[in-house]
Specification:
4-stranded antiparallel sheet; Immunoglobulin-like; about 325 residues
Length: about 325
């Protein structure tokens, strides 16, 4: 819009050009709405007062203005880490020369201007939601289109060094909160079959109703506020203790040997550690059968014989069972 010139005039000739195509229109009002323009393009607009004869024109006045760019298309998050988010998008229809990217965690807002259709925003806090706005900017560096927003979470921080205790049927886990923010923790475990999943807001979990002497694959995962974005899992392999061997008995004795047998414990075990002592000297042997004959003993001496089930890792042992016998 504009003000009437001093003196008289009866109409105005408005001419506009994008540098390639020039168009014009005559109006009698002191304003005009020029439509069907291309987004993000600079137009030189000339307004000239015309006298009552319809042909005598004054000197034109010019204003140069960019149309607003269109909205960027197909914005998407391509990668997230605990401290960065990568975003890309397609150019908007029409023209634009740069993009203003603004991000906020709800407290602190930052921005950056880029000319590429992608950005990696770094130095972010783990497990936090960020609203990321991308706005196309015209060639004058100030005329902006409508922004497009995505709101991803950064990955929660990693869980390091959890501790555990175990018995024959349960495993107790404890861990510390990772850096940043966490909504909850997801604990998953299996022993080669169906997976069990449990969510907790605590920094501990007790896995119960487990099988004795069995190896469990365990994952502890921090989950962000959207209940979808997860940190890298911390993986552990923990073996429950085997149960006690059953029905241990002495089957034969001689002057120099004792034969012992027992039944397998409930659950799983892969071998047995047999230890015997006369009160002075202690010896042991690992066997896979449920029986042993201990030789080279001293006649007439009492021996305490302990049998302990050992799990498949070769080191996790259950509680021992003892029988005492004289040669």
């Amino acid at each position: 819009m504009w003000n009437e010139p001093e003196g008289n005039s009866s109409s105005y000739r408005v001419q506009w050009s994008d540098g390639n195509v020039t168009k014009s229109e005559n109006v009698t009002e002191t304003q005009i709405n020029i439509s069907n323009l291309t987004a993000g393009v600079q137009y030189d607009i000339n307004v000239t007062a015309v006298a009552g004869d319809g042909s005598t024109e004054g000197q034109s006045t010019t204003v140069s203005q960019y149309t607003k760019p269109e909205v960027v298309r197909n914005i998407s998050v391509t990668e997230i880490t605990t401290s960065s988010i990568s975003v890309m998008w397609n150019e908007p229809e029409g023209n634009s020369s740069s993009y203003r990217v603004q991000w906020s965690d709800g407290n602190v807002t930052k921005s950056e201007n880029v000319t590429e259709t992608q950005i990696t925003i770094s130095n972010l806090t783990a497990g936090v939601q960020y609203d990321i706005n991308v706005t196309a900017v015209a060639g004058d560096g100030s005329t902006e289109g409508q922004s497009t927003t995505v709101s991803p979470y950064t990955k929660p921080g990693n869980i390091w060094g959890p501790t555990y205790t175990r018995n024959t049927s349960s495993i107790s886990l404890n861990w510390t909160q990772p850096p940043g923010e966490v909504l909850l923790y997801r604990v998953e475990w299996d022993h080669g079959g169906a997976k069990t999943i449990r969510d907790t807001n605590n920094l501990f979990a007790v896995l119960s109703d487990l099988i004795p002497g069995t190896s469990y694959n365990i994952l502890i995962i921090a989950v962000a506020g959207d209940n979808k974005t997860t940190g890298d899992p911390h993986q552990l392999t923990i073996v429950t203790k085997p149960e006690v061997v059953r029905n241990i008995s002495v089957t034969e004795i001689t002057t120099s040997s004792i034969s012992v047998m027992w039944n397998e414990p409930e659950g799983n075990s892969s071998s047995y550690r047999v230890q015997w002592s006369d009160g002075n000297v202690t010896k042991s042997e690992n066997v896979t059968e449920t029986q042993i004959t201990i030789s080279n003993l001293t006649a007439g001496v009492q021996y305490d014989i302990n049998v302990t089930a050992v799990a498949g890792d070769g080191s996790t042992e259950g509680q021992s069972t003892t029988v005492s016998q004289y040669t």
